[in-house]
Amino acid sequence: MSVSRHVIQYAQGRAVRRIMRSMPWIGGVVALATLGASMRRKGIARGALDTALDMTPFVGALKNGLEAVRGRDFVPDRAPSLAAPRRRT
């Protein structure tokens, strides 16, 4: 194997390790981006709990995988209110 091939493999290995180290941070950024929508759907406390679980590196991945298999959320949405929303005139 030539020296240039070794250099290419070394560089690829370092790039993959760098990307793998940044994956938890990317998941945290995505979870923070969806914080507002989660809080509107689930309420403040449940939405914050759901986002905190999603931001935790391995727990969030496990939670999302199990939710996909199970077909529903672990932290349920709040019950819809019975009153119709008021319209502003």
Brief rundown of the structure:
With 89 residues, this protein is mainly α. It is 73% helix and 0% strand.
Give structural notes.
- The protein has 89 residues and is an all-alpha fold.
- The chain has a domain at 23-76.
- It is built from 4 helices and no strands.
- The chain has helices spanning 3-33, 35-42, 44-55, 57-70.
- The longest helix has 31 residues, at 3-33.
- The mean pLDDT is 85.
Elements, N to C (H/E): HHHH
Considering DSSP H and I runs of 4 or more, what fraction of the residues is helical?
Answer: over 70%
Q: Specify the biggest β-sheet.
A: none
The percentage of residues in β strands lies in under 5%
Count helical runs.
4
* Net shape: elongated
Based on helices, strands and strand pairing, what is the structural class?
A: mainly alpha
Task: Determine Rg (CA atoms, Å).
Answer: 21 Å
Termini separation comes to 76 Å
The overall pLDDT, averaged over residues, is 85
- Counted beta strands: 0
